[in-house]
């Protein structure tokens, strides 16, 4: 496996893997909505990132990790992507406000509480592995590559108990906040634990 620049041709794969790997289907079962939500979610985080780490096995996309470090220039710029994200956020406020507000508010509250007692330097804001390649330690290798550049940085990330949060437990991250929320999914309320993790390098 090799860490190298992310290829634009793999954006579609990332969006597809995000639907299953990040359980985006918890928000809607409509395939049309899922497609656009995955695209929105990817571009939202990509536009925020200041560092991009991509893993490849030959020419096959294996995974990607994004970091947003305070004071650094953004790594990706796209007028089209900015407009797309803005349009999607406008639409979501009219159709999915309750879902997005609960999750976002929980994360904002946990981070605000943590910042009262700890300075942070940035966020691990996107982390995804190709769900068709398993058992090869891709996530670990991506994290190791990013960690080499994080000396003296205090990094946080958001996750939840619907994701593989145990990965961070095993790699030296500390769970510094959690909050119970309830998301409306397909007409039913689904309980979820939002979590904040952090690590000092």
Automatic annotation (TrEMBL):
Residue ranges occupied by any N-acetyltransferase domain in the UniProt entry: 1-201
Enzyme class: transferase
Organism superkingdom: Bacteria
Keywords tagged on the record: Acyltransferase, Transferase
InterPro entries: Acyl_CoA_acyltransferase, GNAT_dom
Molecular-function GO terms, alphabetical: acyltransferase activity
Pfam families (UniProt xref): Acetyltransf_1 (PF00583)
Enzyme Commission number(s) from the entry: 2.3.1.-
Name of the protein in its database record: GNAT family N-acetyltransferase
